[in-house]
Amino acid sequence: MTTTEMMTLKTEPFMLNFGPVHPSTHGVYRMRATLDGEVILDIEPVVGYLHRGIEKLTEERTYSGIIPLTDRLDYISPMSNNLGYCLAVEKLAGIKVPERAEYLRVIIAELQRLANHCIAVGSFLNDTGAYYTPFMYAFREREKIIDLFDMVCGQRLTYSYMRIGGVSQDIPDEFLPALNKLVEQLSRWVDEYDFLLMQNEILLARTKGVGILPRETAINCGISGPVARGSGVNWDLRKADPYSVYDRFEFDIPQGENGDCYDRYRVRVEEMRQSLRIIKQAMNDVPAGPVRADVPHLIRPPKGEAYAHVEAPKGELGYYLVSDNSIAPYRCHIRPTSLINLTALREMVKGWKVADLIAIFGSIDITMGEVDR
Amino acid sequence: MATPDLLIRTLPMQAVPPDWPGGYWWHWLFFTVVLIAFVLTMVMAVIYVERRGLGRMQSRLGPNRTGPFGLLQPVADAVKVLLKENIVPDKADKLVHWLAPVIAFAPVLMIFAVVPFQNGALLADLNIGILYVVAISSVATVGVFMAGWGSSNKYSLLGAMRNVAAVVSYEMPLVLAVVGVVLVAGSLSMNQIVLAQDLPFILFQPLGFLIFFAAGCAEINRSPFDLMEADQELVAGFHTEYSGMKFAMFYLVEYAEAIAIAAIITTLFLGGWRGPLLPPWLWFIVKIFVVFFIMVWTRSTFPRVRIDQLMAFAWKFLFPLALINLFITAIQVLIWPDALPWILIIVNFAIMGILILLWSKLFKLGWGRLEV
Amino acid sequence: MTVALSGKDIAGQLEEKFPGSIEETGQECVVVKSDSLLAVAEYLKNTGSLAFDYFNYVTAVDYYSYFEVVYQLASIKHNHSFVIKTRCYDRENPTVPSVIGLWQGANFQEREIYDLMGIKFEGHPNLKRLFLWEGFQGHPLRKDYLQ
User: Fold this and answer.
1) Residue B135 belongs to what domain range?
2) Considering the entire predicted model, what is its pTM?
């Protein structure tokens, strides 16, 4: 036997199920991985453990009765889900939303983005192995945002605040001062934590160059949101297809270069800064007026179909509604950001180690509620 | 240094075995009981420190419901875990599965046999003490691997394999760092090493200390090298399939190992039981807690490294530095045996800084992807 | 602002290129025959002035007499969007060609439609149920599905 022959051990691939019950699959997701030692040869995602048939349920509910269902899609960012759905119904029925409601929607949606990115960044760092420290701090900051949501709608997780034609109720008087204070705190917080994390050599070694998603693949797979922007795709619906009043605010779209985990992290942190920028602009000129258009309880949109999409924190979230002029939609399809973002996971993790699989999966930031619906 | 010696001689615990009634037997019995009690109590104490300390660092409270300040939490944990059902997987290798925690626990306890609590107060003053520690400490790995293999669970197996790989690699820099200390002290006996430390060896061997600390953390799988039970990846690593009493044993091993490493670091680098004012055994325990606290600190601060980075760090960073450290120490011991300590300290700290900076520039981690 | 291209313009182009492929023309969509779907999709993706490189979603609607499969396309380069639809009238064994060769993003979504609506996508490499388990009877999103 030559030396090279002795050096190459014969190995056999084996299967390992990550999930459905596993600490870092963010819910009940299962990856059937084929491993060669520590190296990932192939993975096959298995979903459906949280399937509740929301699309079927929508066909038996009134238009406004569907809003609570949308809360349960991406339960990390229910406000954005509400917003997307309401936009779709308003487009279908041709409802004009009052100015004040539009501004409130933008403020709330951006706060939701901040809250979501807190969890996304925190749990991503947790997946790289930082023992819950960044996670807890990120959660602490999210808590303050949740308190504000509590103030406007009395809910902490499933808000149902956005309604067809506006929002459910006007903000209380103490909301804007509290928001002002929070925005100040959060901008300091983002800078401080980002500084602390990006000085960490191990974190850089674990994220830089890991799980590269090339730009072409990202576009071809229909990837959206921070994952796509991390790969250098300049595609943010707030700029590309402005809805609500986003065209009135100044903000940038952060983009990555390499499309690795580090870039996706960076994009999220930059997006938090941009969100704060938008909130600052929006809260200074919230106009007075009604917060809800005069919409009947049982809407009967004219026969037709509409597709409305929003830039949810995780990416493009769309609702395709078909109406047959009854009180319930004939068909309501939800474009699931998380499910489609998972398409490229297989390409991203091939050849990486087990530890990277978890880190890359964490950097995509999915919610099982939205994947399975 | 006359005063400490005098102090030590007057203390009752300076037990030279034959003086005891009944000869060696009383000595062994006494110290065995003391050691087991010491390890078990210390494990409870460090678990409390770890949980509360981590809680504080992570801006949460940590356990605070059981007893004053949650002090009884380890007791509650122990009671809970002892009363739990012992579940053995159907396809497990029953004998191996059953033996693994025992084999993992015994060597950890054995390490303490040669650790001096004060001058001469140790179970066995072996003249090859540190060699014994190095040899025994690796045996726990066999237990861990048995656990991984015997559970017939792939997570367990992966965790066990990671542990074996880590121990095999990190044993090198660990031993080389120890050799530096042995050169300076001129003895392998733990007691003699402590007696030689008029100034703690951390000052003469700063690089050796850092290497030992990193390699020691990797050996006992403390963060950031806790790959074998990486809960985000391998659920619980090698003890995924353990429950009840057997799990408690592994939990005990984990913290007993941490205390053992802290005790060895204390003995080798921090002057062991020596210190002013306080009684020696208290100094010893205080130093163990300080070292352990640093381990908790790193755990709450660093993400985990990947397996290939772990290997690269051992072989490309720690190993060469340990060799250079050994070489420099040997030269210093040979050429300037009587040099002024303060000059050596300054020189050694300078060398450490330069070497670490230089090597960090040379040390490049690959991105770790294989074409498949 | 993403411009929704007019159905008439695209239909004109398609009719010129693939005669007889258009079934119906809507305001912002065209309905193509399912056998020429792939050719149309490839034309839409690879023509420089259209360049629909981004695949928003695909879904299906059950209209009792036929299934309608809806594809929403977008172009990141030109920032415009368009909807193509196709219909299958066979209720027992509805079949549509798979577009996964053009847009990988269709992978999970086509499986989802197969799972919940029972439309088979020819050419899909891994056409299994996505959410429901193997052996589940029926396709819940069909309008005639009862419990």
Assistant:
1) 87-363
2) 0.84
